[in-house]
Structures are given as C-alpha cells and as structure tokens.
Amino acid sequence: MFPIRPVIIDEPFRKWGIDFIGALNPQLSAGHSYILTVMDYFTKWVEAILVKHATSE
C-alpha cells in the first residue's frame, strides 16, 4: 500500500475530487439514477449533478 500523505494545494480550483454515485434504487426525481459529485480541495466547494444514464457521452 501507498503511504497516506497530506494533499497540499496553494490556490483554488487547482485540484478536484470527483465521484460518481449510483445506481440508486429507487430512482430520484425525473428518472435520475446517478449523482456526479465534484469538490475543489482548496475551497471545499461541492457540486452535485443528477444524471440519468452512466455513459461516457
């Protein structure tokens, strides 16, 4: 295993964490089954986007 090291970021929007959550059952509103989340490591800004299909398109 790799050792855990602190993530040092010196300015906003330089490094992002991204996660794709799903498939959710039951589906969310309007048939959304997935949630795409992104977070800026410096500012801790979080966005969550509802997604209907898990495709690369």
From TrEMBL:
Matching Gene3D superfamilies: Ribonuclease H-like superfamily/Ribonuclease H (3.30.420.10)
One GO process term, biological-process aspect: DNA integration
GO molecular function, one term: nucleic acid binding
SUPFAM superfamilies: Ribonuclease H-like (SSF53098)
Domain Integrase catalytic: from-to ranges: 8-57
Source taxon at top rank: Eukaryota
Protein name, entry field: Integrase catalytic domain-containing protein
Organism: Taxus chinensis
